[in-house]
Amino acid sequence: IQYLSGFGNECTSEDPRCPGSLPEGQNNPQVCPYNLYAEQLSGSAFTCPRSTNKRSWLYRILPSVSHKPFESIDEGHVTHNWDEVDPDPNQLRWKPFEIPKASQKKVDFVSGLHTLCGAGDIKSNNGLAIHIFLCNTSMENRCFYNSDGDFLIGEGHTSVYFPFQRGMRFSIDVFEETRGYILEVYGVHFELPDLGPIGANGLANPRDFLIPVAWYEDRKVPSGYTVINKYQGKLFAAKQDVSPFNVVAWHGNYTPYKYNLKNFMVINSVAFDHADPSIFTVLTAKSVRPGVAIADFVIFPPRWGVADKTFRPPYYHRNCMSEFMGLIQGHYEAKQGGFLPGGGSLHSTMTPHGPDADCFEKASKAKLAPERIADGTMAFMFESSLSLAVTKWGLKASRCLDENYHKCWEPLKSHFTPNSRNPAGPN
Ligand SMILES: O=C(O)Cc1cc(O)ccc1O
Ligand SMILES: [Fe+2]
């Protein structure tokens, strides 16, 4: 696959098998080149300001409307019911979510979707959901699209994240038992965070976002191709007799894209103190309140720790935001044990959290030489201004909730020495 690069750019692309397939100078010729159908995909209201206006023109073999009616299907475990269980402010941690064995049951991306937590309202386009997918089989003659919002999808083996924006169809192939995390935001799109005093460059650089070029298949599927749609939180399926991946040419700024987390340009403290994790924001889905996100996607990438006279791991914290964390690979610096790749944790609004007792003891005594932090590791956080509710699957059916999580802080003891200002005086 070839890619164009840039974040949110206006691009044009033609499948090289059909040169000249993009109409010249207009979007709706009476007859399109190669007798294609013109179809607009709108990712924003027509009337959005230019800076947030998103749409693409697709030139396809058949328009998307060539399908049989949608019917409700009973697959996966997606929900947007945030009242399934009573609220629970406790620190929650999940062991690695179990992937079904292919030898026992074939499960693809859609049938392996499970909603873990979320908040807000799908119908008024305000909120988010965090889903886990657990699958062992490729989607065969099936594709998926989400009417409710954008899906930011990451899986465990690569460090590549795929935001599939609202309405875009995709089909996921897997080569082994596969697990991953999805951050869904309703009604808004992910953006690059502003850089402020950092300047014009840094964090996730726009040119590292890759957009696939046009490529079509003109494939009849007599047995039926199934288009699955998540609409108002429920799954529906419609049959058609051709592949939907029939776009010969397109232009616009509303496209699928992918980003490799290894390209993240890490900025951090080079003098003293632990900077807030917002310095590691890859993408943000903004709310209408300035500086307040529906959800931020934040990573904890491999880097150098060099801060002097500093307790270097994450500080103890209570936050008005909700913090869901996952681990793609390696170990997270604040929790050496218990937080495992493929698991997760949720520290809800104002719920205390921070390094486990072991981490505190070690980091308080450590010699502060320059040190590689998180080599071979990729942890991430979905941080939201909404107060998240956990689903029945998350609390019970997944059978992965770690009942002993709170014990990692139990050994914390007072070191208070009221008569001695040990160790440091003013600098
Ligand atoms: O480990 C966490 O919970 C996330 C986190 C990271 C950090 O560097 C500072 C604060 C914080 O809550
Ligand atoms: Fe925190």
Q: Would you mind describing this structure in some detail?
A:
- One of its GO terms (cellular component) is cytoplasm.
- Residues 262-416 form the Homogentisate 1,2-dioxygenase C-terminal domain.
- By secondary structure, this protein is mainly beta.
- Helices cover 4% and strands 34% of the residues.
- The protein has 2 helices and 25 strands.
- It has helices at 357-365, 392-397, and strands at residues 3-5, 11-14, 37-42, 55-60, 71-72, 92-94, 113-121, 126-135, 142-146, 149-155, 160-164, 178-186, 209-212, 220-231, 234-242, 247-252, 258-260, 281-286, 293-300, 303-305, 322-329, 344-347, 371-373, 378-384, 389-390.
- The strands form 5 sheets. Strands 1-13-17-11-10-12-8-7-25 form a 9-stranded antiparallel β-sheet. The protein has a 6-stranded antiparallel β-sheet with strand order 6-22-21-24-19-18, with no helix packed on it. The chain has a 4-stranded antiparallel β-sheet with strand order 2-16-4-3, with no helix packed on it.
- The radius of gyration is 23 Å and the shape is globular.
- The chain starts with a strand and ends in a 30-residue tail after the last helix.
- The model has no long low-confidence stretch (mean pLDDT 95).
- Fe (ii) ion is lined by residues 317, 319, 323, 347, 353.
